[in-house]
# Entry
Amino acid sequence: MTRQTIAIDIDDVLADNARGFIDFSNKMWGTNLDPSDYEEHWARMWQVDYDEVRRRADIFHESGVVREYTHADEALPVLHRLSGDYNLRIVTARRLQIRQDTLDWVHTHYPGIFTDEVIHFAGIWDQIDDHSIHKTKLEVIDAIDADFLIDDQLKHCLAMADAGRQALLFGDYAWNRMDDEPIDTIRRVDSWAAVEEYFYGK
Ligand SMILES: [Mg+2]
# Structure
């Protein structure tokens, strides 16, 4: 039987991005944000224009802070189990600018699970402008023919569901509340234990 493919996001699924990002922002730019204030729409979160977003994004990414991100301890055993039955891939919206930092981080925290060849960069933020926020990972998802996506961003899950693929909306975060849930085609999973239960039952 052909193995199915699971695409997995990094930030706020495998890595504690919101906390690391907000800590950096508060220190570097004197913002007074809480991790629950995090959103992918940085211009709105910071209340600045796109020139300033691009300037800050370069500072953030050049800082290497993503190398220091903490991570979800409970993910590793679930990934080990899933890797026995499914093809696992990573699909991240991170910029290519931090590709090497990202690969190193993944290998350090999730050793033996993902080779470089299965870590995909969707290119959404490589050129930051007011269209970036509307882009999804679907092009990469189609290219790798992923059956499932585990992601904390609702827009990627909606795109996945629209394409007839299965989406798992990960985490109970301020930025991914659904007003009119449940959407049949999207399953909310609050934790890696819930991911395991989704694929294997209780
Ligand atoms: Mg994410």
About this structure: Residues 17-29 form the longest helix (13 residues). The pocket of magnesium ion is lined by residues 9, 11-13, 151-153 (CB under 6 Å). The first strand starts at residue 5 and ends at 8.
